[in-house]
Amino acid sequence: MQESIASLAAEIAAADLSSTAHLDAFRISYLGRKGRLADLFDQLKTVPAEEKRAVGQQLNALKQQAQARFDEAQQATDSATDNTPANPDFDYTLPPVPNALGTRHPLSLVREEMMRVFARIGFAIAEGPEIEDDWHNFTALNFPENHPARDMQDTFFVAPAAGTAPDALPYLLRTHTSTVQVRVMETEPLPIRRVMPGRVFRNEAISARAHMMFHQVEGIFIDEGVSFADLKQTVYYFVQELFGADINIRFRPSFFPFTEPSAEIDITCLICKGAGCNICKYSGWVEIGGCGMVDPAVLENAKIDSDKYSGYAWGMGIERIAMLKYQIKDLRLFTENDMRFLRQFEAL
Fold first, then answer.
1. Could you tell me if 101 and 169 are in contact, meaning their C-beta atoms sit under 8 angstroms apart?
2. CB 176, CB 153: distance < 8 Å
3. How far out from the chain centre does Cα 244 lie?
4. How far apart are CA 330 and CA 209, in angstroms?
5. Alpha-carbon distance 87 to 108, whole Å?
6. Average pLDDT of 323-335?
7. Which DSSP symbol is given to 33?
8. How far apart are CA 214 and CA 200, in angstroms?
9. Residue 153's pLDDT is what?
10. Which residues have C-beta within 8 Å of that of residue 82, sequence separation ≥ 6?
11. Averaged over 273-295, what is the pLDDT?
């Protein structure tokens, strides 16, 4: 045993530790759990009892010697490979820049607030596909083929799949979330009280007031005895909950193929307070949506008895509501991913 310890001590003293590879080999061969020092410690149990203490002390001293030589060589190797300049241009002791946390988009904030307002008066959310067929986007909503009303909306049509029948209904990116109204009327039992938020697409020039992709919230209520007075009270409630009880509201007669009578909903421009600006076209009023009583033809298209049931529908753009609520003058800010703009909503 003494000879083995002396021989191993000589090897450790003479070992080459000039490189990282040599250091790893030394550590594994002598200091590892299955190394040669570990083998000698295992053999300690075979040493006579009267010699065990002295041999154990020699083994511990040898292990400390090997560890000290390894640590010294490793430190020298690390110092030799340190390429940090003596006078660096960058202070490497500075703390790292923390990762910035994200926040909800202003359109998401407004959408959620709108949904909460309507939920308090019994409206549930309904959703539908963004790629629609002609029936749900146009025909069922009283847009007959070649009807001039179709020209009100510039549409992105989707190329038909290979093998599609020539007479199949064309597919398109939905131009309004009224398509979900049709699907709800076709499938759900009466009475119906639903809101439909979602993304819509129109082939329009992008400007401070318009975009080819934007978001809408539409709603529909169908039951026996529903009147235009019910519609007005719903609109008054929504506007006052979202913008305050003192907001001015007006209804202007208008035309939509799927409602009769129809009206535009205007409120006082919250950006200029009615004085006139580029958002309200210097009129002091801003249109926030359209509304009306559901046309009997639309009810019949959904297999609803128009003699027994009536209903109202409305729709508005989420971007327009967000612009008024947060005093934003350019619609394009919502899609430009400018962090200076988005960080303004971190505390909301």
1. no
2. yes
3. 29
4. 7
5. 49
6. 88
7. T
8. 6
9. 64
10. none
11. 87
Tell me: the pLDDT tens digits for 146-164? 777 666 668 888 887 777 7
pLDDT per position as a tens digit, 73-127: 888 877 666 555 555 677 778 888 877 777 889 999 999 999 999 999 999 999 9
Q: What order of strands is seen across the sheet that includes strand 157-158?
A: 131-133, 171-173, 157-158
Domains and CATH numbers, the chain: 2-80 (no CATH), 107-345 (3.30.930.10)
Question: Dihedrals φ, ψ of 133, to 5°?
Answer: -100, 170
Mean pLDDT computed over every residue of the chain: 86
pTM score over 0.85: no
d(CA 196, CA 136): 14
Q: What are phi and psi of 317, to 5 degrees?
A: -85, 135
Strand, coil or helix: 15: coil
Q: Which 3 state secondary structure label does DSSP give 53?
A: helix
Nearest one of 44, 315, 293, 289 to 197, comparing CA atoms: 315
**CA 50/CA 27 separation, integer angstroms:** 32
pLDDT classification of 194: cutoffs 50, 70, 90: very high
Structure tokens at 171: 């597919």
Which sign, positive or negative, has the C-alpha torsion 327, 330, 332, 338? negative
Question: Which of 227, 216, 149 has its CA nearest to residue 179?
Answer: 216
Q: How far apart are CA 189 and CA 178, in angstroms?
A: 18
